[in-house]
Write a structure and sequence with these properties.
This protein is mostly helical. The protein has a single domain, classed as Hypothetical protein, domain 2 (Endonuclease III, domain 1, Orthogonal Bundle). Helix content is 65%, strand content 0%. Helix 3 packs across helix 4, helix 3 packs antiparallel against helix 9 and helix 6 crosses helix 7. It starts with a helix and ends with a helix.
Length: 211
C-alpha cells in the first residue's frame, strides 16, 4: 500500500486548497471547524469561521457562552441550534473532564460525547499532528468502491493499517478531497483518480468494457 499512500499525498499536494482551518491548525481550531463543516459547504463555513474564532477564541469562551450567543454567531450557516448544542456539550466535557485542554489521543477524543470517530481523527491528525484515520462519508464511499470496505468500523480498521506516520495530514486530506471531488456520489471520475491502479471498481468497470 506504500505506492497508494504516496499517490494520494502527491495528488493532494497538487490540489490542496488553503482553507483557513487547514493553514493555521490547532486542536481547538480544527475541532471548531469540523463541527461547523458538518452538513454544510466549505464555502459557507469560510464566511463565518474567522469571525466565530475572534468571538470565541478558546474552549473556555464557548464553555462560558450562552446557547443564544453561540446560535447567533452560527446562524449564517444554518443548523445553528444543533451546532451550538454540540459545541456546548463538547466543551463541557473538555473543561470538566480534561481541565479545559483538548486531549490529543484518538481514544480520549472519541470518548467525548458529541465528538465521534471522524472529528476524533481530524483533531488528532490535523490539530495534534498524530497519526489517526479520518473517515467521513466521502472517505467511506471511496474506500467502498476501491477496496470493498463496508461500514465505518471496517474503514477505520483498514485505515489504521495504512495511514502513514509521516504525511498523515496530507494523506487524510487527500482521501477526504478525493471523495468530495473525484469519487463523487453521482459517479467517479476514474481518469482523475490516483487510486485507479488499486481500485476494484475501476478494474471491474474496465473488464466489463473490454468484453
Amino acid at each position: 500500500m506504500e505506492g497508494l499512500v504516496d499517490a494520494v499525498i502527491k495528488w493532494e499536494k497538487e490540489h490542496w486548497v488553503p482553507y483557513p482551518w487547514r493553514v493555521d491548525r490547532t486542536p481547538y481550531k480544527v475541532l471548531v471547524a469540523e463541527v461547523l463543516l458538518q452538513r454544510t459547504t466549505r464555502k459557507a463555513v469560510s464566511r463565518v469561521y474567522d469571525t466565530f474564532l475572534s468571538e470565541f477564541p478558546d474552549i473556555s469562551s464557548i464553555y462560558r457562552a450562552s446557547p443564544q450567543e453561540l446560535e447567533l454567531a452560527l446562524k449564517p450557516i444554518g443548523l445553528y441550534k444543533q451546532r451550538a448544542t454540540r459545541l456546548k456539550e463538547i466543551t463541557k466535557a473538555i473543561v470538566e473532564v480534561f481541565g479545559g485542554t483538548i486531549p490529543c489521543d484518538y481514544a480520549s477524543l472519541n470518548g467525548i460525547y458529541g465528538v465521534g470517530p471522524y472529528i476524533a481523527g481530524a483533531v488528532s491528525s490535523f490539530g495534534c499532528g498524530k497519526k489517526a484515520p479520518v473517515v467521513d462519508s466521502n472517505v467511506m464511499r471511496s474506500l467502498g468502491r476501491a477496496f470493498g470496505v463496508k461500514g465505518p468500523r471496517d474503514a477505520i480498521e483498514f485505515l489504521w493499517g495504512i495511514v502513514p506516520e509521516s504525511g498523515h495530514e496530507f494523506f487524510n486530506y487527500g482521501l477526504v478531497d478525493l471523495g468530495a471531488y473525484v469519487c463523487t456520489y453521482r459517479g467517479p471520475k476514474c481518469s482523475e483518480c490516483p487510486l485507479r491502479p488499486y481500485c476494484e471498481y475501476y478494474a471491474s468497470s474496465t473488464a466489463s468494457r473490454a468484453r
